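Figure caption, in words: inputs first, then the predicted bound structure.
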Amino acid sequence: MSASSDNPKTYTGSCHCRAVRYTVALDLSNPSFEATKCNCTICLKTNRLGVRIPDPEQSFKLLSPASLDEVPSYRFNTKQTQHRFCNKCGIHILCYGEYEYEGQIYKVFSINAVTLDQDQEGLDLRTWKVRFWDGKAENWNAEPAEKPYPGGSYY
Ligand SMILES: [Zn+2]
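Bound structure (zinc ion present):
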């Protein structure tokens, strides 16, 4: 795999009431860029469109509130991943944390891409490649698929 191309662009995102606002650098022109849908309990019920941010320290900036500590967190199961929701409008913004799989620790930082503000140049969710994961079965070795795994949905 080649490294990401050299033209990431900065986009703004927000929850519905705009209490939570952020910027994120994404390289949407990179052929390897893709969004994910997953059939696990939290992704399905939030209908989350995930985009993994490999380097959040560089690429992600919270504009409001001052700290993620002010955005309520929800954890479940192993409680290693924090899901952050706006406490006014209820929109799922992002999740991050670590999880262990087959003895290895993986770090994850993933925005809910439907919180990206629309009408930004170069941003058209209809053109995105979306691939499907089998989180419900914790089947992380499976290739992300073109169709949802059982228990998942397209939209
Ligand atoms: Zn809100």
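The pocket of zinc ion is lined by residues 15-17, 19-20, 86, 88-89, 91 (CB under 6 Å).
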